[in-house]
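Field reference: "sequence" (input) and "structure" (output). Example, ATP-dependent helicase:
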Amino acid sequence: MAGMKSIPFTVAKNEQFFDRLGDYIGDVFYDILPEQGFELRDEQIYMAFQLEQAFKHKKTIFAEAGVGTGKTIVYLLYAICYARYMRKPVIISCADETLIEQLVKEGGDIDKLEKALGLEVDVRLAKARENYLCMKKLDPLSEYTEDEEILDVHDSVPDFVFDQGISMQSFYPYGDRKDYPWLSDKQWEQIGWDPLKQCATCDFRHRSAQTLHRDYYRHAQDIIICSHDFYMEHVWTKESRIREGQLPLLPEAGAVVFDEGHLLEFSAQKGLTYRFNYQNITNVLTGYQGQDVREESLQLAEDIMTLHDDWFDLITEIAVRVEGSNRLEIPRNPKMIEMAERLEKMVQELLEQLVFDAELFTMDAYHTKIIEEYLEFFTYGLSIFLKDDEGVYWLEEDGDESSLVIMPRLVEDVLREEVFQKNIPFIFSSATLSQDGDFSYTARSLGVDSYESFSVESPFEYEKVRTIKDHSYTDDTEKFEGIAQQLQDNEGHSLILFRSEEEMQVFREWAQEKEWSFDLLFEGDKEISELVRTFQLNASSTLCAYHLWEGLDVPGESLTQVIIASLPYPPDDPVFKAKRKHAGNPYEEIDLPYMQLRLKQGIGRLIRTEHDKGVVHIWKQA
């Protein structure tokens, strides 16, 4: 292919690619990188050999490598070389934006490799739709808003978006959320992508921000980086997009690397669901009533909205909160089922009315498409909800908003069929993929039936720099007093990890009655990256959190003590109940492995560099 980047080593006609690749990787680790000031690590050499076999034989491999092993450099080297060999990009799927930033920022791992090896790596980011501007919302809003900051966004939109006579060759990506840092999230909601807007029939479609960004990253020659959430959205929507004549969200990849791969299951659970916001159907049907339709259609839409409101009120009333989870359990209530059956029947009837109204040409095609697609989505979700034991469902509440979430089946079935049946290398990289070398829990939860695996210990001498102490308690007061003493003895410089938000709030209420010689910072009080930054800069402070069991990287004096307030067993929510239901021994197969992996991650927050040292306190109920 013209313009494709070349492999960074020569392969003669009588030579095999993987033989030359092995020689090149050896030169890089033994000669080139040490000359550039990189430390030669045996762990990297071993990991490189294992990954080479996975790429060569197109295997799935769990590459468990501890902190400080330099695992990112290894998989990046193979990803770049393999992408150029296969003439297809390698997708690197990361757990969150923090990990993506570590890869692509100036001075990050890709930048270091480029400078050390004299390479120019073509790496592009694939982001979720929520990150892009919606002209269908911004353009009409600009006609009447008095918000100068939103008007500034409209003024910055390229001319080609409005001038349909301009050649497509002059188009370029625009409209990324990061381009408008001055906007608040509330302002962005007014102009950002909206799930109720029908992109497929939008007159801005070929000039939209998300279309042009997608076209840009699809042409990456080396690496496409996305989040686990986005990768799972690609998996979930691929077939439907193809049926509708659209391209999948991501192009065909030569290989896929899952960085912090142990978190992929949670993104799969999030992505492979039907989500019904309380307000959505009301918004859709109100739009329908605004069209020129028959009286009987209007009345049916009104009846659906009334029944839907009553149904949601009942679900909210009977839903049971589960500690440690934002998923509220919904007991299978006969009245709730009867209302859902009536609702499904009425929505099906309205779909038939919609066809009749559209044939009368009283509705424009744009609104017809929006309403039809949402009602079909709604009825399909209801059909899963009504089939006993076919779906897993729960209620989520975010402020004043409620959403019914339905997961058609356990995600490992979907992943097994839609992802891991492909004949390409899949690389899982993380410091926590196994329990004492046993990868079966992670493999089983992801639907991976055949895999290779290895573990590489961290080069850090933990026994010299880290002390782990166990403590028992009989009630919260005894535990909190013990934690307070540990904080005072260490003069702050601590991270407290709680099993749940509820447990953290109980500690917070208790702590408010005490005097502290340092600041206590609590997750939720600020945007998370700003909170971590405050903790890092205020070296004597203590950070209290329930989400930061993984991903937090605070080296140095700010963090010399990790306190684990409770063993992190999984919550007793609908998803984990479903997993236990399908397990032979739920405690051994589900609860214990989950806890051990999370505990290992939490302990791993302490030692981030060879200069770190400190203590880990683990509290266990007596």
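DSSP finds 23 helices and 16 strands in the chain.
The mean pLDDT is 86.
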